[in-house]
Amino acid sequence: MKNFNIQFLLLIFFSICLAQAQENNIKALTGAIIYDGNGNRISNGTIIIKNKRIMAVGDENIKIPENARQLDVSGKYIMPGMVDAHVHFFQTGFFDSRPDAADLRDSIPLESVVDYQRSNPDRYYPAYLGSGVTAVYDVGDYLWTLNLQKNNDQRPDAPHVATAGPLITPAPKELISIFEVEDDHTFVHLDSEETGREAVRENSAAGTTGIKVWGFRPNDPEFVKNIEAVADEIEKQDNKMIAHATSLEEAKMALELGAELLVHSVENTLVDDEFLQLLKKNNAFYNPTMIVSRGYYNTYKALLGEGFDIDDPKNLLDPKTKSMMQNASKFKKYRDSSSLARLEAGLPGMDERMSQTSEIIKANLKKVYDSGARIVVGTDAGNPGTLHGISYIKELEAMQDAGIPARDLIVMATRNGARAMERLDDFGSLEEGKFANLIIMDNDPAEDISNLRSLEKVILKGEFYGE
User: Fewest beta carbons less than 10 Å away: which of 31, 183, 257, 363?
Assistant: First the structure.
C-alpha cells in the first residue's frame, strides 16, 4: 500500500509538472513586420504562441503573458507558412517514376520506385519545410498517400498534407496501365459511367480531399456522358472536382461540370470572358503551374549528358534525388540509339513550343488576376525536373514575372492554398487558434517575392523547425 501511495503521488507530481510545462510553453515574437496571409500588414507586430497554436496576433499593444519567452525579431519579416497546392508524392523528380515520358524500367523497375516512395516520403520534408512550405496538396496519387493526410498533423517534422488519391482519366489503358504496381494504381480509366461513379465512391470513402480528372474530351460524346456521371457522383459524395485541363475548351468543360480547382494553366490560347465568369461563378482556384514543362526539358537535356542545374543554396535536397539528377546521363545507356536520336532531334522544337506557351501562360495568369478570380501557387513537384520543395520559390518568381504583385502572391501562397486544401480553419493565415506555422525572413517578401530566399527561421506547429 505504501508503494502504491508513492507511485500515485509521483504520478500526480509528474502530471502537475507536465501541465505547468505546457502552460509555460508560450513564446512572444515581437518587433517584426507581419503579413498575416489575409492581405494585412502589421508594423512592429507581436505574435504570441502557446504550444502548437497561435494565441494572439497584433501590434505592439498586445499584452504579453508574464510567463512568455520573449523573442525580439525587430527588423525581420513574418508571414504564414506557405502551401504548395500541386504535388505528387509518388513522383521522384526524375524519369524513374514517369515511364510514360522516358522508360527506364529495364534499369529501375517501377515497383521498386513506388515502394521506395511509399516508405520514404519524409525524405522530401526538409526541402519543403526549409523552403518555407508547411503544407502540401497531393492532387493525384496512390491511396497510400492518405496515411500522410491522416498522420502528418501530429508530426513536428512534417508538412500538413491533403491528398486526392487516384486520378480519373480518358487516357488509353495501355498508357496508364504501366503505373499499376502490386495491384495498386494511380489512374482509373474512365470507360463507363459506372466505372467513374465507383472511382468517386471509393476515393471519397477512403477520405480523399478532392477527385482529380486528368484530361477532358469535349467533342467525344461517350466521354461527355461518362464525365457527367463522375461530376454527379462527386456532388453526391460531397467531394470536389480537381481538373487537369490545359486547353480553353477543356477548362471551360471542367468548370461547367463544377470543377473547383484547375491545376494547370490554359496554354493554347488567351482565356475569354466566358472562362473568367465560369471561374468566378464556381469560386474556383486557378493554379498556373508555370515551370513544370521547362523542368521536363531540362531533365531530357540532363539525360543526354548536358547536366542539370540544381538551385539549392541551402542544401535542402535529399541525397538520393541529388544523386539521380547529377548522374542523369548514366541512364542514357538504357535507351536505344534510335529513341535517343529522336529525343535529341525533338528538343529544339520542344524549346520553341514552350517559349510560345510560356507567353500565353503568363498572359492568362495576368488576365485571371485582373478579373479578381482566386489563384493558388502549386509546382507539380515530383515531375521530372520539378524537384520537391526547392522548386516552390521558382514558381512564385515566375508568377511575379507575369505581373502579379509580391504582396498578393503572399496571399495566394498561404490563405488561398490552405483554402484549396480545405484546411483554412487550421492554417494559411496568422490568426488566433490556428496552427503556429510561420516563416521569418531578413528581407521584405512583399517588395520582391525573391526575398523569400532570405528565409531565416521556420516555426512549425509552434516550435522552431530544425532546432
Answer: 183
